[in-house]
Amino acid sequence: PIGTRLMFGRVGFSEIEATKQHMPVLVVHPFFTSDTLRYKWRTRWMNMFRKFQLGQRPMELQVMWYGRCDDQQYSLISLEDFIPYEDANDIIQEFEGASEKLSLGETMSQRDLDMVQALGLCKADLDAFNARNGFFPGSWR
Fold first, then answer.
1. Are 23 and 118 in contact (CB under 8 A)?
2. For residue 78, is it left (φ>0), alpha (ψ between -120 and 50) or beta?
3. Among 1, 12, 28, which residue's Cα sits nearest to residue 91?
4. Kindly report the CA angle at 117 between 32 and 41, in degrees rounded to 5?
5. How far is it, in rounded angstroms, from Cα 45 to Cα 27?
6. d(CA 22, CA 44)
7. Which residues are CB-neighbours of 15 under 8 A, at least 6 positions away?
8. Torsion, CA 59, CA 60, CA 61, CA 63, rounded to 10
9. CA–CA dist 69, 11 (Å, integer)
10. Count of beta carbons in the 10 Å neighbourhood of residue 121
11. pTM of full prediction above 0.85
12. Residue 4 near residue 132, CB atoms below 8 Å
């Protein structure tokens, strides 16, 4: 669907169900996942899309989680669970607070460390994209 297609490349946040922690995500096209996981995730997304077309399930977004390792790097989330960057001021402040702890040399929890790592990876991608193209939907600027 057009609405889903327009989401490809958007940066935002979603909540990890197990931890109830928001982490940054990138909405990815099903054919642009990492080489090692491409078949698995393309197949999952296409199965979901077929069921959506038949009216058997709602449309979902395939996202890449920043700061997650390979086997947990991608997942499908509902449209309602995606929070666009521009609507995530409270979440962004929490991430910036964790980054501030690091710069002040304060003791950090594993959660804070995960947030700082994810934020760094996300910003690096956005900065690289901005340098090449001058625009990125949901950019940090």
1. yes
2. beta
3. 12
4. 25
5. 12
6. 23
7. 21, 22, 23, 81
8. -170
9. 18
10. 16
11. no
12. no
Both tokens assigned to 41: 């995730």
CA distance 105 to 36: 37
> In tens digits, what is the pLDDT along the chain, a chain of 141 residues?
677 788 888 888 999 877 788 999 998 887 777 666 777 787 888 888 889 889 988 888 989 899 877 667 888 899 899 998 888 888 888 888 888 888 898 888 888 888 888 888 888 877 776 776 655 444 433
Say how many Å lie between the first and final Cα of the chain, rounded.
29
Residue whose tokens read 């980054």: 99
Task: Decide if 12 contacts 137 (C-beta within 8 A).
Answer: no
According to DSSP, residue 111 is labeled: H
